[in-house]
Please model this.
Amino acid sequence: VAAGLMPAAFPAEVSGKKMRIAAQMFSLRDIVWMDEHGFLAMIGLMKKFGYDGVEFAGVKVDPKELKKYMDDIGIVCASAHEGLANCLKDKIAETCEKNLSYGNRNLVMPWAPVPEDCKDKVGWLKKLGADLSDGAAVAKRYGCRLAYHNHGHEFTEKVGGVSYWDIIMSDASSDLEVQFDLGHLVRAGEDPRKWFARYPKSVRTVHAKNICVPDAKLRPDNGEAGIDWPEIFDLTERNITEWYIVEAEPNPADTQKMKYGVDFLRRYL
Model:
């Protein structure tokens, strides 16, 4: 057990949920990762833009100072991306302690590429699912949750006709939740309805792309690839989804794109 960390129960689920909107701080990494001043300034700006929360991918200040700052301005941490090593069972208690100290319970493992020299891809992918499940079980004991974040390659790359995603999840437990990146999912040619149906009580947060530009479309034109947002709104309402997390990877010092994103979701969600 990490020092000072006591097991905690999850708060009771609230009926009649209200969806909340968070800003993915990785979207502004050229500012956020520069120093603690840029880090805190961008959190404050996201509050001014109308966000309810933020998602971290690295924290630049003392966690307790961060918690006080967020409390003072009235914003919370929706979730945080943590590297694979921080999500394994021998390290995740410490990861939980750090995240709980600034008020976050939702941990997300975002990226674990198969090593280029891997001779047993199936074995490696199955072990990834099992290892993350072990980490999720430990996190659960301390009042946190662990989710796996998809990229497109988990659906397009296959071994023996079976997608990386299905191999990973074949040995995963129900403790491991899912953070769907909707842009990656759709660009991979996948139908969100299929995947939300497969995980009816696992998708607590989603990454919202394609809305960080002026005049973003509510749904794609006939024959055009893109995200059908009314359909997504319905799917998340039926799942346990609590947070839409606005993401825009290009132009990592452009703050205006994040204003477009929250305005779009406030208008329609």
Notes: The CA atoms of residues 21 and 266 lie 8 Å apart. Residues 6-15 have pLDDT under 50 and may be disordered. The first strand starts at residue 20 and ends at 24.
